[in-house]
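Re: that backbone. Tokens:
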């Protein structure tokens, strides 16, 4: 707070000092005030800048005040000031022109109807962000040479420093404006909406896609689509990714698959390049799915983003799809128990092909992966342990000499401030207080499955993380924040059938950690885990099962097209 007030005060005080020094005239005072004023500008806190704008002392006014003061200084000293004043007028005209070009170029490239990747579409590349960023208020700093050198002119009694300063500024502005103008000319094809759609459509038709991975949602949910990319890359059928929101296009994980982003519903429904596809895979239940579900001759398949005992894994919306793919018998049972209208005959057990690289051996270093879920969209979906026990769980693990890897759900703290604070407390413990004994993993790398391989034990909440971890055969813990007895808990959440349960007071933790001293696969629940793994994830090679399911759906799609 003190720094904010100091910087704001210095900046405000410098303006009347500059005008006073120019009228006096006092070149030395003007030079000192202008340097202080420019130095305070870039460190002015955003909140303070916003308040100044609300009282009509915004950034443009402040820069213009310095420029006017520089012209006044030369006039009061009897020095020629016409070139400086005229040059500053030209500078602002060029700034307006350059900003207009940049905004136009930005709009052409970032609001085009279709974005594509890995399709070799002959469209101009987007200009560097650095070039587009040099517009608006940032360009005001180009007035530093003429204003500062006007102070030098006042000190020396010579006009040429101020003239040289304005010449440098105008030359720099001319270069930036010409570069943008040339970029704009080269990007003209991007401005033609129909041409862009036609070019992309041609390339998609040439690729002749057979399987679509369709995804819509917020950028922080893109992991739900990214987890399927390696699986689709391994399919014999030609696959393509279709996204519906622009932020998803840059957030999606790297892939060799063709990727389309079609934000407009009208463009999506009229895009003909996807007509060859016979299977559409959906990773999430969202409203925008309707634009793909309405396409005749395409078998719609809900693949989700992980099997779990959470309500999201038996959402009534799921009955809109032709098929619902689950990992194993547990997924089929889940829909049967829920009675949400998903018919048993449309459910296909395909395994979890993402788990092919999961190792059954841990590092044997007493390494614990704490991978809690998020708080859900409503209190009814609140399964997260972060607020209830996260910080003191991490403290207890560290006190036992256990290495802790914390990889929370990407949306942790998205809805609940209490969860957000607890999440911050956990990160503070592991990053600042115990950096040698703990690791925080927030981004996509290392992946969740890499973290599985680097752990001897998982502690998690009711989520798909639990079911996936059973592929490792290693012991796992499910948090029991509601303090239900084991029989009730397992009945409600079958994926915890082979889990050690952990209460909010952590009373079971010492006994659980003692299991790590036993030989791999010889702890109390090892046999139960082996039996449960087949129930949750199914038998057989999951990639082969998944590919076979895609092939069957494709054949059904061909039959639908004929009918």
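Recovered sequence:
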């Amino acid at each position: 707070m003190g720094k904010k007030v100091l910087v704001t005060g210095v900046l405000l005080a410098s303006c009347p000092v500059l005008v006073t020094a120019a009228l006096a005239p006092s070149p030395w005072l003007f030079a000192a005030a202008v340097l202080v004023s420019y130095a305070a500008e870039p460190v002015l806190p955003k909140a303070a800048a916003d308040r100044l704008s609300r009282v009509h002392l915004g950034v443009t006014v402040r820069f213009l005040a310095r420029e006017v003061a520089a012209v006044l200084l030369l006039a009061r000293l009897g020095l020629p000031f016409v070139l400086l004043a005229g040059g500053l007028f030209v500078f602002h005209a060029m700034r307006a022109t350059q900003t207009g070009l940049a905004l136009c170029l930005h709009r052409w490239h970032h609001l085009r109807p279709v974005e594509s990747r890995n399709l070799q579409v002959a469209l101009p590349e987007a200009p560097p962000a650095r070039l587009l960023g040099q517009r608006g208020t940032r360009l005001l700093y180009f007035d530093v040479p003429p204003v500062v050198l006007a102070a030098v002119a006042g000190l020396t009694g010579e006009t040429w420093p101020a003239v040289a300063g304005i010449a440098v500024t105008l030359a720099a502005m001319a270069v930036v404006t010409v570069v943008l103008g040339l970029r704009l000319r080269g990007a003209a094809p991007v401005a033609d909406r129909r041409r862009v759609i036609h070019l992309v459509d041609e390339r998609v038709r040439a690729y002749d896609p057979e399987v679509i991975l369709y995804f819509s949602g917020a950028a922080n949910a893109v992991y739900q689509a990214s987890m399927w990319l390696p699986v689709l890359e391994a399919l014999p059928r030609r696959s393509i990714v279709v996204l519906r929101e622009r932020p998803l296009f840059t957030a999606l994980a790297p892939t060799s698959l063709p990727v389309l982003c079609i934000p407009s519903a009208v463009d999506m429904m009229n895009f003909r390049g996807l007509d060859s596809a016979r299977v559409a895979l959906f990773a999430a239940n969202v409203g925008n799915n309707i634009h793909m579900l309405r396409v005749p001759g395409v078998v719609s398949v809900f693949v989700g983003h992980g099997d779990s005992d959470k309500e999201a894994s038996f959402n009534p919306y799921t009955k809109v799809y032709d098929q619902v793919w689950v990992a194993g018998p547990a997924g089929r049972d889940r829909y049967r128990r829920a009675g949400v209208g998903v018919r048993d005959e449309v459910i296909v057990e395909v395994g979890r092909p993402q788990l092919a690289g999961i190792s059954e051996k841990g590092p044997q270093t007493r390494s614990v992966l704490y991978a809690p879920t998020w708080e859900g969209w409503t209190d009814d979906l609140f399964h997260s342990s972060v607020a209830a026990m996260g910080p003191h769980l991490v403290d207890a693990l560290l006190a036992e000499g256990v290495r802790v890897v914390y990889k929370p759900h990407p949306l942790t703290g998205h809805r609940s401030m209490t969860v957000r604070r607890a999440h911050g407390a956990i990160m503070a413990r592991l990053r600042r207080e115990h950096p040698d004994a703990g690791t925080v993993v927030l981004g996509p790398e290392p992946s969740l499955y890499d973290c599985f391989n680097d752990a001897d034990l998982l502690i998690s909440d009711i989520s798909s993380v639990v079911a996936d971890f059973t592929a490792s055969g290693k012991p796992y813990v499910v948090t029991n924040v509601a303090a239900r007895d084991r029989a009730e808990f397992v009945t409600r959440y079958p994926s915890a059938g082979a889990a050690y349960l952990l209460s909010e007071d952590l009373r079971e933790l010492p006994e659980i950690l003692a299991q790590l001293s036993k030989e791999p696969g010889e702890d109390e629940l090892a046999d139960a885990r082996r039996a449960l793994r087949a129930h949750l994830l199914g038998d057989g090679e999951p990639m082969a099962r998944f590919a076979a399911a895609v092939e069957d759906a494709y054949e059904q799609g061909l039959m639908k097209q004929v009918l």
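The CA atoms of residues 98 and 519 lie 69 Å apart. The chain has a mean pLDDT of 88.
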